[in-house]
Design a protein that fits this description.
The chain is an all-alpha fold. 74% of the residues lie in helices and 0% in strands. It is built from six helices and no strands. The longest helix has 29 residues. The radius of gyration is 15 Å and the shape is globular.
């Protein structure tokens, strides 16, 4: 049974210059929300990963090039806002955006598929944050916080998906 997987996610149309500016501003806004407001509401000791969730969604919807570039930008912005200097976070965000784009080629566009696809990305991010925090338990906190962030970020796309099905 051959399912048609090609859809709007796989067109890889590059954004216009205004689109790039809007994407960078959106990543910047999510990074500010994560670094300021959400850092005071920890989930078992971890901040809700809004920026990583947005990067995963952009990689999932727009492809590896747009997702990878915005992943690097998001990692740099988050590093600058949290005051840790330059770390491996931009490379991790780049990797998870490319991973999301490659997963989008293989998986159907469904909200549950998207959430399940994010688990390996948050395990990698959680391992990095656990090494930085020197606490293995932090890995599970980041996994839970990341899944919460993915659910928050993907709500508009899920609503659009279910409306399209009706």
């Amino acid at each position: 049974m051959d399912h048609e997987i090609r859809d709007h996610r796989l067109t890889h149309e590059p954004p216009t210059p205004l689109g790039w500016v809007l994407f960078v501003l959106l990543v910047w806004l999510f990074a500010i929300l994560q670094a300021s407001f959400l850092s005071y509401i920890p989930v078992f000791g971890a901040t809700v990963e809004l920026t990583a969730a947005l990067i995963l969604l952009i990689g999932w919807k727009r492809g590896p090039i747009v997702g990878g570039i915005l992943g690097m930008v998001g990692g740099l912005i988050l590093d600058a806002l949290t005051g840790v200097g330059i770390s491996l976070l931009p490379l991790i965000f780049f990797g998870i955006a490319v991973y999301a784009a490659l997963a989008a080629k293989r998986l159907h566009d469904h909200p549950l598929t998207y959430v399940i696809m994010t688990i390996p990305a948050y395990l990698v991010l959680g391992a990095w944050r656990a090494i930085c925090e020197k606490s293995f338990v932090h890995l599970f906190a980041v996994l839970l916080a990341g899944l919460i962030g993915s659910l928050i970020v993907y709500i508009p796309a899920a609503v659009k998906y279910f409306r399209r099905k009706n």
